[in-house]
User: Fold these one by one.
Assistant:
Number 1:
Amino acid sequence: MSDNVFDTLKERGFIAQVSDEEALRKNLDSGTVTFYIGFDGSASSLHAGSLVPIMAMMHLQRAGHRPIGLVGCGTTMVGDPSGRDEMRQMLSEDTIRANGKAIHAQLDRYLHFDGETSLALDNADWLLPINYIQFLREIGCHFSVNRMLAAEAYKQRLEKGLSFIEFNYQLLQAYDYLHLYQNYGCTLQMGGDDQWGNILAGVDLIRRVEGVKVEAMTFPLLTTASGAKMGKTAAGAVWLDGDLLSPYDYYQYWINCDDRDVGRFLKMFTFLSMAEIQQLDALDGSEIRQAKQVLAFQTTRITHGDKAAEEAQATTEAAFGKQGEMTESDLNAMPTTPITRDRLAQGISPMELFAEVGLTASRGEARRLIKQGGMYINDQRIDNLEYSVNEDSLTPDGILLRAGKKKYHRLIVE
């Protein structure tokens, strides 16, 4: 395998479709390429599914190319119909702008924006001031409605209804690419495979307006071996924001992944060499746990830093009893929820508590956990549906809840 970063991305499973593979490989091998990926501003944090484009950007940046982390505050005000059965919720401009700032701060941890070799931009800066009539005359004239309606994103929505505001989305995303080409020399747009039609629209617009050939590349839309969407669990999204999901819980997501996903995740979500990954992927039986520990540590350090990864690893090992009693540092690193003494005095169903802190997705799932022998409180297995958590459950370290062998949560009295 050559040292070309295109081949690296291909070998690691990042590439779904490319506009011109030979041309893109040549461009990446012959000089610095400015490239961009757009991130939606509909939430204040990205989640683990966003790591696919982020890691691809990091590989390209490490190879000497220039990333543009584009937050789409302007396009978020319209709403992307791709992959949606109905129109997205309309958010206020203030909310979208605040989300955009938070996402740029997250991306900065990975891409280290300096304004020259890496750029953080917001398409609201050029989309919001647009003169609508002028935009229709200069940009809309290059789009065929028949061709747009043939795009998969629009075809899927026609039966249930496609709003006119959403119909404009492809024009705006294509205009983003044109703007970035004209102002920053951007010649590569990347995104999820559901964005293929929108990205090609930008390629075509630049060809029509500027007479220049630029490139497009998409990533596969990942699901786990069990069929779940990447970055989603029964308890909710696997957020990259440490305030929304603790580094410990983030570590747990990776260490508890399906055995069948370990090799693929090591390729896509770590920077380990392929030789190291192949060795880890060859492990079998109980030894797979070693590969998962490496995966969890590497992914956590990339997102939350070395210290957080080390604390999450130590807490996990202490919780498994590999290092004896938990230290104060181990306990502090564990996800924690405060509870009032008055509430404890009244007694609380463990099913209610486990659902409340996210150890199970619902009370019904917590009930099943008890019946299967997988619920523990202070390392005592709970097999009685009438069990009550109360003041007698308190230890000097609080109350330790455990679901199965791997998921912990700590309650402390306020």
Number 2:
Amino acid sequence: MVETILAPYINNYQKPILIYDLGQISKKMNFLTNICRDSPIKMLFTVKSFPCREIIDLAYKIMPGFEISNINEYQLLPKDIHDVVLSINDPTGQLNASIPIELSQKNTCYLHMDVIDEDKLLSFNFRPKIHYGARVSHTSLIGSKSYVTESRFGSSIIKLAKHKKFFFNGKLTGLHVHNGSEENTIDDYLIMADQIIYFLKKENIKISFVNLGGGLHLLTEKEIEELIQRLTPSFIDNNLQGFFEPGQSVVRHAGYALGKILSIKQFSQEKYHLVLDLSNECHIKWSDPVLLNKGKLDSLDSPQKLTVFIGGPTCFEHDCLGILKVDPVDGKLPFKLNEILTFGNINGYAAAWNMAFNGISKASLAFC
């Protein structure tokens, strides 16, 4: 299937190209939406993860809403957008004043803010028709897991107790966890939800929504479905609307990149360095590329392995697409000059970052 999709691009290759399978993206969007049909939890597409018109229009048809974080993302939304949920997570705080009245009248808007300075809270312009939530640091919810670094977004769950009056007077009606950690599990989300609900009951705070953020790309579809099933009873019992903000999980398995081998350098009998016209820094940043078209890259019965460093064309030492252990073919390196290599697992952030640099071309972008 992948070979059929990519063959025309390989045969007509001119420069690095990013290719996205809209059928696979549509399928994932439908999956995420359908598993929440009988739940108070909704999946909102993260615009920053793929700020392209084709993907946003597709999400508008399938998913119940969007997450945006700046004015450019807001302007990418369809002009006549209506009857959707908008989660607004703006680190600058400027979007609150930029949201047109008609947008919040035609849609359900949730705006999340850092609650650190009470004076700022007292002077904040809480606008009608918008639901305001306080950001919570995921660090304070998950605890001492070694991979968790202190989040620069949100307060600890304990510090939020100092601002209870803003929950009691209805100014703040929800909580948002800025989560996108690279080691999430089902248990992490369950712990975060349990800690929030425990906090609400202990402090006698009533809110209407909890947003558990992103990071779902680290779970399988089966795990995501199980997570929704396990969270749903608790959200129903506590009369809470729930949200997730998937981005990478929607696209990463539907994205591909093509690059040509420009040079091959041999460092020793077992070590080689390939330089492509495809750059990790310019074209596929934040992706985790997997080489697809070289057959067995790690066969256990190989009597000898060759180490192959695959790098991009920039002078940056860490412009690296991968380091592979490959089997020699007839005693030789199984790569040739000008060969087109195919990479999978390219997410939508690659299209967002895609750039030209110092004579290096921007990658082409294609949807199929």
Number 3:
Amino acid sequence: MNCAPTIPGLDHLRALAIVLVFLFHYGLFEHPTWVESIGAFGWIGVDLFFVLSGYLIADQLFRSQARTGTIGLRTFYVRRAFRILPAYGAMVALYFLFPSIQERATIAPLWKFVTFTMNLGLDLRQHGTFSHAWSLCVEEHFYLLLPLSLIAVYRLGLRNAAWLLGALLALGVVWRTWAWHVGIPEELRGEQTAVWFQWIYYPTPARLDGLLVGIGIAAALHYRRTWYERLHLKGSTLLLCGGALLALAWWLTKDRYGLFGSVVIFPLVSLGFGCWLLAMLRPTTSLCFSSTWFTRQLAELAFCLYLTHKAAIHCTQEWLTSEAIPVDGALMFFCCALTSLLAALALRFTVERPFLIIRDRWA
């Protein structure tokens, strides 16, 4: 698979995404008050991951098609399997073999993790442990369907498939509107409930916005680059536009669980991060080419950190809570962050990295 050159700006975004996710999920445990005030909007980190995944995977597939005239399904699926399954499988095994690391009392059946379907009908009241694997299910559905969809587009000879992206974005709006009316009981509408998450937040059709924005950016840069260049948008302008969209989404979070918030916040966040992604791809943006050791290392560790951080936080608080280290103190937060990094490093160097080396040799 012909890959794009490494762009430090994307490492900055990936590092930002995992920090946002960590802060948001830390708020689900005992925590200092400042974590809740800073991290309450951190759920958008997953949407940033979706935008990045949509762009990077679509970019790879477009490059493959341009170079060889086709999309190598076998190569693509094998490389994705080596990238995702070993670390994910190891973490699933740990959760089921060692129940003491489970951060909640219940976990979804094993077959739902194996088949990447645990995000469908996920009820946090019944299956709260490792619930953040829902986003991996969405991405696996994306990995499965995007190459097949692109092959169909190429074989049908569609010269302009932008309407398809728009239709799928509209599908997300329609799904969330329908789900809000049909799936959520009237007395629970507008409230933060497990039912809202089950119908609005977790299902794949409801969470395609970020992936589609990423695909759209990759398609525009490959097939409509002259149109994009004519806009003459500076990196600073794109950063400001993205910030404005994210600020609007943050302002709307007061009605996040109402109909309007449920329908429009996700596309707003995705478009905002799409602007930031475009800014990082502009050669005029200094962050595009300025690399830092911290963001580079954090970006490389992001997947393993995403898999391990909830279990690490749970175990650290169970083991270290004392009068000297209060469970809701800043020192505990530091200890949890440190053990999360150590757990992620262990998973990366014992599982993820060896399989990536095998993949690069044989796939």
Number 4:
Amino acid sequence: MCCAVAACGGGNHAAPDAALPAWDRTLPPASVMGSWRGLVPARGIVHLHSPYSHDACDNMPRAANGAVNEPCLQDLRAGLCTDQIDFADLTDHDASMADEDFPTLFSMRGNDTAVMDTDGNQIASRMTCPDGHVVTFTVGGENDLMPVMLHHHPAAATVQARHDLYNAVDPAAVQAFRDAGGLTWIAHTEQHDIDHLRTLLPDGIEVYNLHANIDPNIRPMYLGLSASGAIDAAVQFADTQPGHPEPDLALLSFISPSTPAITRWEQLLADGHHIPVTAGSDAHENALPIMMADGERGDSYRRVLRWFGNIALVHDTGDVGQIEAAMKAGQMFAVFEMMGTPIGFDVHAGPPGGEVELGGTATIGTMLQVTLPTVRDLDPSLPKPEIRANVFLVTASGSTMIATSTDPTLSVPLTTAGAYRVDITIVPHHLGPYLGDLGTGYADVELPWIYANPIYVE
């Protein structure tokens, strides 16, 4: 790969456009997105690996003496601060997280503080960033199942039994993780058979996974995409010559909806199950250790965590219990913030004063109200994006798009029982000028921007 990337330095290079607004490598506080009838946004990463995963940090997460890879851990912590992440759901592989005492897995440093439950057990930690922003860490795992926000390791008689439990994939394991205070999620939904998902009935699933979108083995087998397509496209962003594309936009070159994951989700909804979804960053800092034009490795935690996250709607962004409850209820949406931070997005049902939020249950005869978002601080000198809302009704008969609109608001009568879900797509023309010599092609394609969890109608 290094040779392929080095070759990208040739070709015709235009001088940088001095008038182009500077690219913002950071994210604003989630609070700029707005508020929802007393609820505020908490930006979270659900599916994240630290040096307690065997394959993190260029497959060198630990030294021979067992000490964690401190520079890699500091990259993770700094990335969470720079991207203004409110909650980070760590999901490390059983090698080596299952070998550790539970509090060790929070990787507390400096002035971090522990969050304790009523029994005196640590269930989270809080890191205060240099600018005062606070990141809340929770601990979970990712193997065949992905428990998140655990309060302790699941009960097991020995360390080996604990490893076995983390690697189990059956209803008993799902319940064991719930008994340990967490939620049981499914990562890599594209790789799970629908009948098996029906047997497991997890608390939630991934609607998108970055690793799946990139991996040369997963792409052809599960997504029907070319094996090397993502890597071949992404290396174009390693160009460091004048006129190079903005490295943070590499995702534009290979992002595509995970159709199998969406299909599995809608099949579970059609069965009548209330199944929330998240987008999984699956960040390891182990895929592209090549320095990009911005002086940062291609797969830095800061870059990957900036691409997309999950917005939980809560009253208190620092309350671990509220975040867990919002995830379980589906009171949240996934957003690809590389396209822009959405301002004003809203989906609810019912009349003023009786609104039903995402993940809630409304009654037949009420209305679904959708407000399309705008891109935060869009410079007027940039091309305007095209933004569209799509409303799908999922019943036992399947999924049907029942409304689509580019208008600022959209009202849909709820006349049929089922799950009503909204997604927002975007043609990100405003990113085209940042693609430099590559031209605007990658920014002239309709792409996912927001996946909102359903409102259910009974």
